[in-house]
Amino acid sequence: MPAKSVVFTAILSLPLLLGGAPALPAAATPDHSEFDATLQAPFHADGKGNRLITLHFSYPDSEQTQQVRWRLELLSPRDHVLRRWQGRRRLAGAAVDVVIGWNGAGAGPGPLPAGVYRLRLRAGLAGASDGGGSAVDVDQSWDVAVGLPRPVASTAARAAAAPAADAGAATAVAPTPFAAAPAYTVHLGNLHSQTGHSDGGGALPACAGAQAPHSAAAGPADAYDYARRRGLDFLMTSEHNHMFDGANGSNAHADPAAAKALYQSGLAAAAASNRAHPGFVALYGQEWGLIDHGGHLNILNSAELLGWERNGAGELLADTATAAGDYASLYALMRLRGWFGQFNHPQGGQFAIDGRPLAWTADGDDVMLLCEVMNSNAFSNRTDESETRHSNYEAGCNRLLEAGYHVAFSSNQDNHCANWGASSGNRTGVLLERGRALGADTLLAALRARRVYATMDKHAELLLTANGRVMGQRFANTGKLTLQVRHAGRRGQRVAAIRVFAGVPGRNGDVAVVGRRARTVLRPAPGEHFYYARVTQDDGKMLWSAPVWVTQRRR
């Protein structure tokens, strides 16, 4: 019988335009039409040490034949490249797959030593930029286990036993009690979903993708009731802001009053749910932007519908005019209004300002709280949390952190079917100060404090502290910095690998691993730094802590 495995998928979206505020297409264009590159790899091999890796490439609604350049790398526990596969595939109307058989070997013969390794896919459309290069290099990856990483009874024993070389590096760690419990309560939910107010709410079990705008009967009230009954502590329905006229493109016959009234009805539905069900938080907001014209972000607490579309009479189909793709102006408006946001499924070419993707502004840094580090399949119709397709956006989030954004990681489901929060066990975890009741105000306060972790496993908890300060904080430090990673698997999950990452805000460089143990002691160079932790469990599911931001001072 094959060994138990969990399959992960990374969905990689390449925007069609990389400039600032783009012109909108005249015709209606599905908002989920983009290049996708998907990596699927079982975390565990079968009983003979073999596994199949599948690379899936698609470009829905593309009118031209594209050529995809791809490279898959096997990285050691110390992030050295051990093996590389690469190639090109022509991509027309139908999706194409590349299947690679891997027997657990590196570049040479024979299996690799037991440990947790990493498969990294980089893909792009060839010839779309300069000299035949890729339009955007996409960097997505998942951990995979070779053999069974041996368990270690304690951090001290593991530190003494772990060899310096890659070969045979011990990576298993005994779980540590969740130290936040005395001071905080943990609440788990989903901050990204759609209903019939835009292109979500598809009836089960027939739902298999995005819905035509306003075609589904299920609305926000149905979503809140469903999520609450399924055990979530909070749910945000984030409707596409440009679909309140009932169309993917501009509806020449749309009534502006009806579009604005629909948005207000969603706010009223959230308020009614919160009054009727204390302890469950219903949020209603908008997913702003076009994915193939800049990228999506959620605005968490706006009482106004934002938009750029107008009907045939020239009337704005929203409360407040915003130019599509103009992120600098949007961030400034959000800061003026006191609104807060989340970067949704970020990719390398998105959120551009003056032609610079993932560009930082002071306004944006003030208002953007979260970055989706992973999602489960947005079009899943499963209701038993068994979805195996997941999307990884850690590379995009890292670029935002390196640009200077102070964002914590979130993990959502982007549900387009009527299964809000039920397709997978992944969640966004939020820490509330003990004694404070969960409500819309306290949830937003915790998000603003970045007391958040992203998890693929709702039964596992993660906390990062720095010199005793809880993740999400910014502080000045002199001397040593002690980073402590605490994981608790409430159903016996063990930790297979820990990675502590470091970066420099505003450098626009690459993050680096600075620790592989539950306790890491550093003496940072003077200046600005951020640190976060990623934990991989022995079932392959991963968790990400919020960063801490440290200003290191000279003595």
Describe the protein in words.
The protein is mostly beta strands and 555 residues long. It has seven helices and 30 strands. The protein has a 16-stranded mixed sheet that branches. β28 and β29 form a beta hairpin. It is globular. The relative contact order is 0.13.
Short structural summary:
This protein is mostly beta strands. 13% of the residues lie in helices and 35% in strands. The chain is globular, with a radius of gyration of 23 Å.
Topology of helices and strands:
Blueprint: E1 7-14, E2 35-42, E3 51-58, E4 66-75, E5 81-91, E6 96-102, E7 115-125, E8 138-146, H1 155-161, E9 184-190, H2 220-229, E10 234-240, H3 256-276, E11 281-288, E12 297-299, E13 306-307, E14 320-321, H4 327-337, E15 341-343, H5 362-367, E16 368-376, E17 390-392, H6 394-403, E18 408-412, E19 427-433, H7 440-448, E20 452-455, E21 460-466, E22 469-470, E23 474-478, E24 481-489, E25 495-503, E26 512-515, E27 519-522, E28 527-537, E29 542-545, E30 548-553
Parallel strand pairs: 9-10, 10-11, 13-14, 15-16, 16-18, 23-30
Antiparallel strand pairs: 1-2, 2-3, 3-6, 4-5, 4-7, 7-8, 9-19, 11-12, 12-15, 16-17, 19-20, 20-29, 21-22, 21-24, 24-27, 25-26, 25-28, 28-29, 28-30
Helix pairs in contact: 2-3
